[in-house]
From TrEMBL:
Residues 196-220 form the Ice-binding protein C-terminal domain. The lineage of its organism: Bacteria, Pseudomonadati, Pseudomonadota, Betaproteobacteria, Burkholderiales. Keywords: Signal. Residues 1-25 form the signal peptide. It comes from Roseateles toxinivorans. The keyword Signal applies. This is Putative secreted protein with PEP-CTERM sorting signal.
Length: 225
């Protein structure tokens, strides 16, 4: 797995996090974050992929930027549309945004890492940032929640690792982690399938085609022999 070093310290901590074998709470899908969404009017709670552990809550979700509706994440995978949003005002925007929420409760000294995957295949190529420092427009929650949230589009220049290719279909991941010194307190990862998922029939045709090509190649090899 490739780690792009947008933040040296963040990348080092992320490497430790991904290699960690410590027991973590299982992620919940399509869940409601506490104390609720507070990064702007019109944003409803729910559809979060989240982990609550060690008194810390970390949550992620995807939103359809054109309709401004959250995408259903109850299956563990968010299905997003391909391409750019043609009806969105302002800077160019992809059809989907990622949103994050953290809640450290009464704990102090908690730091966070957010990783964006740019690899459209089943593999991952994360670029890591500290979300508390990377975005200046985070919405901050008052005590005792000590949390912050934001919504970011994958075409924004501030996207870790750079803006996405909005016409590149594939499976992408976003990871959010909470740390206390060198100990990971909580971690959650959401998967976003951008564009249509190939039907089983498509795979069958593809493999059949490969089989025909292999047969032709063997016949040619025999003739040349």
């Amino acid at each position: 797995m490739q780690l792009k070093r947008t933040l040296p310290l963040a990348a080092a901590l992320a490497t430790m996090a991904l290699a960690s074998t410590s027991a973590m709470a299982l992620a919940s899908y399509g869940d409601v974050a506490a104390p609720g969404v507070y990064f702007g009017t019109g944003n409803v709670n729910g559809n979060w992929t989240m982990d609550t552990d060690s008194g810390v809550e970390v949550a992620l979700r995807a939103k359809n930027r054109q309709t401004l509706q959250t995408i259903d994440g109850s299956s563990g995978t968010y299905m997003a549309e391909l391409g750019a949003c043609l009806t969105c005002s302002g800077a160019p925007k992809a059809m989907w945004s990622y949103e994050f929420s953290v809640n450290s409760g009464s704990l102090s000294g908690v730091t966070y890492l957010l990783g964006i995957d740019h690899d459209p295949s089943a593999g991952v190529s994360y670029s890591w940032v500290d979300p508390a420092a990377h975005w200046a427009d985070n919405a901050i929650a008052a005590a005792p929640f000590n949390g912050f949230q934001n919504s970011q589009n994958v075409l924004f220049a501030s996207t870790p690792g750079g803006p996405f290719d909005v016409n590149m279909a594939g499976l992408y991941s976003v990871t959010l982690q909470a740390w206390n010194n060198t100990s990971m307190l909580a971690s959650t990862t959401m998967n976003v399938q951008v564009g249509a998922v190939p039907e089983p029939e498509t795979y069958a045709l593809m493999f059949a085609g490969l089989g025909v090509l292999g047969f032709v190649a063997r016949r040619r090899a025999r003739k040349q022999a």
